[in-house]
Give the backbone structure.
Amino acid sequence: MNLPNKLTMLRILMIPVFMVFIELNSLPNHILWAFVVFVLASLTDMLDGKIARKYNLVTDFGKFMDPLADKILVTAALIYFIPLRLAPAWIVILILAREFLVTSLRLIASGKGIVIAADKWGKYKTATTMVWICYALLMTNFIDTMSIGMQSVCTGIHIALMILSLALTLLSGFNYLWKNRALIAQAK
C-alpha cells in the first residue's frame, strides 16, 4: 500500500476518533479535540491527493476510497451538527442528498467506462463545507466564553458559512446533473 492510500486509511480510522470526542462530554474541551481530529483528517485528504498526483501514485483503491473517506468524515460531522444545533436537519439532508446523487451518477458513469472527475464547483463546495465545519466546531467550543456581542457576530458568520456551503452544494449538484444529462437519459 502506497503512502497516499495509507493516508486515506488513516483518515478513515480518524473518523471514529472524531465521533468519540464529539460524544465525550466528560472530557474538557471535547469539541476542541474533535476539531483537531477533523482538521488533521482534512489535511490528510489534501496531502494524499498531492502526493498521489506528484509521484504518479494514483491507484484504483485511492480513486474509490479517498472520496468515500471524505464523504464519511463530512457526513459524520454534519449529522452531529443536528443535535448540537449547528444546522437544521433539512440543510443536512439537502447536503447529503447531493452527495448521494453525485455518487450515484459516478457509479452509473463508471459502469459505462466514464470517469466523472470533480469540477471546480465541487471543489469550492468541499472547501467551503470543510471551512464551515471547522469554524462551527471552534465556535461551539469557545462561544460560552464570549461576550453577547461577539456571540452574535460569530453566529452570523456561522450562518453565512452554512448558507454559502448549502448554495455551493446545490449549485454543484445541479451542475453535475446538467453536464451529465445525456448519461442520465441513457440510464432509463
Q: What stands out?
A: The first helix runs from residue 3 to 23. Helices lie at 3-23, 30-54, 60-81, 89-111, 120-142, 148-179, 181-186. The chain has a mean pLDDT of 93. The chain has two domains: 1-81, 89-188.
